[in-house]
Prior knowledge:
Layout (H helix, E strand, L loop, with lengths): L1 E7 L4 E2 H7 L6 H9 L3 E3 L2 E2 L6 E2 L4 E4 L2 E7 L2
Parallel strand pairs: 1-7
Antiparallel strand pairs: 2-5, 3-4, 3-6, 6-7
Helix pairs in contact: 1-2
Amino acid sequence: xxxIDFELDRDFVELNQLLKLAGLCDSGGAGKQLVASGVVxxxxxxxxxxxxxxxxxxxxxxxxxxxxxxxxx
Length: 73
């Protein structure tokens, strides 16, 4: 599994924006479509809320890619 460490410089990031910022899709709209397709998991649970608040310490998985969200600094 490929892993991406994403440094979070604020309290949270919306899930669709995280997918865009991590390079898994081209836009926030494409991120929403990805979430709606049922292939996005947050901390092991399928996440259907496109704008779910993702905070440092959480892990987001799409297929064989895992995004580890870490606090900046």
